[in-house]
Amino acid sequence: MSTVVRPLVMGIVNVTPDSFSDGGLYADTESALAHGSDLLTQGADILDVGGESTRPGATRPLVAEELDRVVPVITGLAAQGAIVSVDTMRAEVAAAAIDAGARIVNDVSGGLADPAVLDVVAASDATYVAMHWRAHSDRMADFATYDEPGGVVAAVVRELSERVEAATTAGIDRDRLVLDPGLGFAKRGEHNWQLLAHLDELTALGLPLLVGASRKTFLGAVLAGPDGTPRPPTGREHAHSALVPLLADLGVWGLRVHDVRATTDALAAWQAWRTAPREEGRR
Ligand code: PMM
User: Fold this and answer.
1) Could you tell me the residue range of the domain that residue 204 belongs to?
2) Hey, whose CA ends up nearest to atom 9 of ligand 1?
3) Which of 19, 54, 132, 253 to mutate to test the pocket of ligand 1 (most atoms within 8 A of CB)?
């Protein structure tokens, strides 16, 4: 039987009081650790631990607050043998997270918010996820304009290429880089769908891609009720599962998701379909 490589499943552990779909559910160390263990049991390959909500309009925590939230959780999950990623835009937090056992730095700003993150990662052997980003969450709606030829897709390709340049110049080799289109960050609904429909233009940059569509507003919008109100975040899971095989077919490296079980189930079915005997194997 042939084999196919399935995307890695990155389970989200938001240690925040205010993330948009699970804010407050895992805000203390104990419940975040328990949630991380559950996600591992459900088949997560990576646990992404974050202490700053980036939901639209969010205000930033103090550095000390972010450290207090993420470091004990990373320490505990890494001690269980999990591959842990830290979702942070801050050099100080990235450094502490790496010391605590994180092997991936997931920087939603791609090094724009705090360029020293790039130096911290360069001095380690961590993998670096550079996401497309334009401004902090309290202002990002003002930056959702893509007037250049080629629109949002061309802009994201160009701006991510600049981040790759910044990361490699800082000393992070390309084989430690992962890119992310940043769905929902300074993007209106149609921008997210255009990016998904043209994801091949991002894969053409030759680096692995991480995609975070899970529970985002653009999914809620296609599930809106008759009055146009977007479906609330936890009701968006089936729509996300429909995207999973499409993204797997495009060869994405990873999927950043809230519902790990739904994603690993969708991937198991996709994998069985893709590895079923074709013409030569039929009797
Ligand atoms: N989205 C959120 C937070 N971190 N990181 C990456 N790499 N990609 C994303 O799309 C992404 C992210 C916001 O979603 P959440 O509040 O549900 O965690």
Assistant:
1) 8-275
2) 212
3) 54
The tens digit of pLDDT for each residue in 46-64 reads 999 999 998 877 889 999 9
- Whether 90 contacts 111, CB under 8 Å: no
Rounded distance from Cα 54 to ligand 1 centre (Å): 7
The residues of the chain scoring below 70 in pLDDT are 1-2, 19-20, 23, 280-283
Q: Is 69's C-beta closer than 6 angstroms to any atom of ligand 1?
A: no
Q: Looking at residue 124, what is its pLDDT?
A: 98
Residue 3 counted as domain residue:
no
Q: Angle at the Cα of 206 (from 174 to 189), degrees rounded to 5?
A: 110
Model pLDDT for residues 153-206, shown as the tens digit of each residue: 999 999 999 999 999 999 999 999 999 999 999 999 999 999 999 999 999 999
Marked catalytic residue, from 176, 215, 216, 236: 216
Asked, for residue 281, whether it belongs to a domain, the answer is no
C-alpha to C-alpha distances, 136 to 57, 161, 180, 198, 222, nearest whole angstrom: 8, 20, 17, 25, 26
**Residue 258 forms part of a structural domain:** yes
- Closest CA to ligand 1's atom 16: 19
User: Quick check: is 256 catalytic?
Assistant: yes
- CATH number for the domain spanning 77: value is 3.20.20.20
Name the burial class of residue 46, with classes exposed (0-12), middle (13-18) and buried (19+) by CB atoms within 10 angstroms of its CB. buried
What is d(CA 162, CA 126) in angstroms, rounded to the nearest whole number?
A: 20
Number of compact structural domains in the chain: 1
Atom of ligand 1 nearest to the CA of 184: 10
Binding site membership of 186 for ligand 1 (Cβ less than 6 Å)? no
Residue 81 included in any domain: yes
